[in-house]
Amino acid sequence: MLQVVWFKRDLRLEDHAALCAAAIRDRILPLVIVEPDYWRQPDVSARQWNFWRGCIADLGEAIAAKGGQLCVRVGDAVETLAAIRAVHGPFVLRAHEETGNAWTFERDKAVRRWCKAEGIAFEESRQFGVWRRRRVNRDRWAQGWDRMMAMPAQPAPPLLMWERGESNPLPDAAALGLADDGLQVAPIWGRAEALATLHSFLHERGEHYTSEMSSPVSGEAACSRLSWHLAYGSLSIREAYQAAQARYRELPLSEKAWRQSLRSFIARLHWHCHFIQKLESEPEAEYRPMARLYEGLRPRSADAVKLQAWGEGRTGYPFIDAAMRYLNATGWINFRMRAMLMSFASYDLWLPWQESGRALARKFIDYEPGIHWPQCQMQAGETGINTIRIYSPVKQGYDQDPQGNFIRRWVPELASVPDAYLHEPWKLDAETRAQLYPDYPDRIVDHAAAAKAAKDAIYALRRKPEARAEAKAVVQKHGSRKRTADRKRAGAKADQLKLAF
């Protein structure tokens, strides 16, 4: 029977369980569905589609090189599958499991209902070390992840029998109603780039990953930069894990920096799936705090003026604004800066994490909902279990950009400010400020006062008996069960935004 392989965020032929299962059975119709309704959601953007589109085109070339043709359809998933059935007859639908946003969650449920009603088998394969079903035994989760990552990565099937289907052209962003979002530096997509990036990190760039990944200056090169390749599946996480393990084993004991960096990287691959498992186990975490006691802690709707100033990098805090402008221009920023930006929105500006989270999601080319949403509410202090981390925007600036080079590059309005005042320009007198940077805003809030108010509000809730009881339930459902020394060492970093490896 015809095998329809539905490619979603797994745009490769290698280590593709659904494709391998189909290849040993019958003819394959490789399918990508471009869903306009998805691209109308508030957490997606043109920069994401353009990268995704490039990955789809790259997949099409890989299939063409093996004698097939990628079938691209634009429209609703259920209607697309029904149209394929009308032309090609009964089939088996195969895909990887996907932990996406609420829209894709409902889409997948609709597809399953249609398949059941039509007598179509819908077989899903595991892609990450993430288990379906809400009830997952966290005591055994880590061992399951280890076993899956240790299984051999599957090469592309050598023999593939293709079915050809009617295909639509890949639309551009404008055709999907996506406006230009200010991206200035477009990343390179596709399988070859993913492999080259992995190799350069493991053999050239990654030696000082552990010590250099926190600064936006050094992190640009020291981080692996694999996050968007993993998010769209041009590289599997198992391939990255096994390549890192192989590199680690070949390193001599004298290469201490390299070995420590690779241990850190491997631990973060584990955390990648750990966080996706949270959203898989509790899809409501996209819009509800894991600890329900925190519902209503912040205003239901964000202060529009503050949200816009934060999103444009015009808060009056130079390091915050430099980081946001860098993200706006490149679609990526390192994990420490992601945590800092979310912390500032959540505590200094007291914005609901759902709205600031959507704004950040649109900016991230590597948006991975399963990581993004648990991390957003963690940074906002609404999980009930994690340490409240309120980042000082001034201290972070001095720590991560001591010479101010990053600030001067991304906030050119401050180019004439003396070094001694660059991180705190408000300490200059009003006349000097007006002369040196007339177009840069004053501080939107006072950090010390805002941080105190935020702490007071959150700890007032945490002291309640019901908060302690709820925290125990959250730990039982979502808490990490670290099993190795490496994971224990990495645990202190678990409250950072791990998507930006």
Helix-strand category: mainly alpha
Order of SSEs: EHEHEHEHEHHHHHHHHHHHHHHHHHH
Q: Estimate what percentage of residues fall within beta strands.
A: 5-15%
Number of strands: 5
Overall pLDDT: 93
> What would you say the CATH architecture of the largest domain is?
Orthogonal Bundle
Radius of gyration from CA coordinates: 23 Å
What's the helix count?
22
- Helix content class: 40-55%
- Sheet of most strands: 5 strands, parallel
Kindly, what is the distance between the CA atoms of the first and last residues, rounded to a whole number of angstroms?
A: 41 Å
CATH secondary-structure class of the largest domain: Mainly Alpha
CATH superfamily of the largest domain: DNA Cyclobutane Dipyrimidine Photolyase, subunit A, domain 3
Shape verdict: globular
CATH topology value of the largest domain: DNA Cyclobutane Dipyrimidine Photolyase, subunit A, domain 3
Pfam family, one: FAD_binding_7
Keywords: Chromophore, FAD, Flavoprotein
Region (Disordered): 473-501
Domain Photolyase/cryptochrome alpha/beta: 1-130
